[in-house]
């Protein structure tokens, strides 16, 4: 009666669960969106709010820009087609802006804003050069420039920038790619290896990690390239985060197909050979399809999008979710004409439920690891498994009430029976002390040789062709910004600017040592008031006190009244360059310096170029309280190391919790016997990694959580049956094969993190299957017969 009451409760609860699931799927699946940002998998660490804001600003600037270099044998033919190329890209909603020509208006506005403050705007190079130039040479060079440059108003030049110091200052600051020229049509041209390329760029309308944007951009880029495809000698180079995200999405789709279709086809073949029933085949995939659909809906509801990594793991979920159906079907076929669902569920329900709890606990252990991306993987997988379990225990007993029409294949039964007799007979012999000593030595030496891997750059290897194309682009443009930067802070703008200028003096020394190739920051565009005073003094000493300005005016035969006005104007005190209006004009430039206010402080980002060694920068930043060295890669690597070590603690905790969970049914000794196969399998997997020199990362340690959660099912059912029922071994064997088909295919991934995850589970689950009979050696014969209803 208790069994019937349980089945009735499961049926009614399944109906309620199904209604909620259908409602959630109906509301969330139409809004389904995908994301493939690999950085979402990793934790942010202990970032200050200012560092987090700076990273968002940098990511927005870098990730949403797309750059193009296009050349051809006939530039006039190419120029004629470029407007159509731009229009093709503009028609796509994925591009917010396409800049084919140089927009001079923001630059001209800034230049006009700077002109009244020309004597106060000098850079470090001018500080070194100006004092060394003789007065006569300065005057002669300026006269030649004034008299030979067409379109120059001498009066305006004398009033605004007589010695062209402002022009030189602006040339050094000019944003964009160095060496770019503007031709008669207004196109930006760049000479690369004797060949002239047209340079232009576009701005994405949203994040490049949006899969829908990637699809639209791919189509638009294909059409744009087709516009110039037949131009003789055409060469198209492009660069940007977009192309890496598109390659990542394509790789993910390929891997989803490999894992999902591979495991699906393998399971189809196995199921058809074992059960020979179309009905069971369809019923077997009902928990999988329902589990994945509900998992997608839950992730969309909780996270607003589904990461493609979750889809890859979702594809591998096929091999686990089908396990519950396998045990049900094999038990039904084994009972044959005596089939009674109540008897079956009375026997299967405890093991199925404990197996579900152990697997879900293992997946949810991901959430304790601190990896935000894997939290979604955990929710996705746990939802899928719970859905599959509920369908098996809530629907199957009522749907499959009739006995099967045929038995399990005789060849399969014979093979499994032989395996059972061989393994269970031989296994006790392997527990003697010589074998145990050999195993201990093997494990100890292997574990001692383990090589940890905590480098985020090794987690994903970019496509070789894409990397080669980017290197060509960087070599052509000279653009090679480092991922690391210095964040400088100050209570007021003046304090911030002075701190930036103090840092600049140190950076110049590192530039001389070739530690960095260059840098960019706000104080280059907006000197502090202290620096403006210093610049004005140098300008006056070089051009006014030396008599250079007066000689220039005399040789130009400037009338005395105007001469007096100019000399007095440059000798007098001028206002400082205003902060707020200057920042507003700078923000209109494509490469505006990064500055922001947060928590009553001003912050500026110092971007670095061609960084060769991070240690001197880290040491330099530590010498000043307002300088913060931000090494995204280094910090992530440090976090990976911490989480790898923390996951080991989490793994030990999981063994303890699951051991306590099982002890209420099997006792302490029985619980230890069930935990022994996955524990030994995990140790053997790690030892093999040491012996073969495979690096071990946090992803290997997280995979061992699943070796525990998934592999323990075999030990559970072996314990329940005492190793005496062939149909239990059939289910365990087929379940192992389906799991290996799913997670083993992850080892084919080109993403190192997923590859190591798949290899670890492939080896670990294989040994779990081999060692599962250990769980039955000390079990009581409490299950030699099927329990009666």
UniProtKB/TrEMBL annotation:
Residues spanning the membrane: 256-275, 282-303, 309-326, 347-366, 378-399, 430-450, 646-664, 671-692, 698-718, 725-746, 752-777
Signal peptide coordinates: none
Keyword Ribonucleoprotein: no
An annotated GO cellular component: plasma membrane
PANTHER family referenced in this protein's UniProt entry, alphabetically: MEMBRANE PROTEIN MJ1562-RELATED (PTHR33406), MEMBRANE PROTEIN YDFJ (PTHR33406:SF13)
UniProt entry keywords in alphabetical sequence: Membrane, Transmembrane, Transmembrane helix
Protein name: Membrane transport protein MMPL domain-containing protein
Record has Transmembrane as a keyword: yes
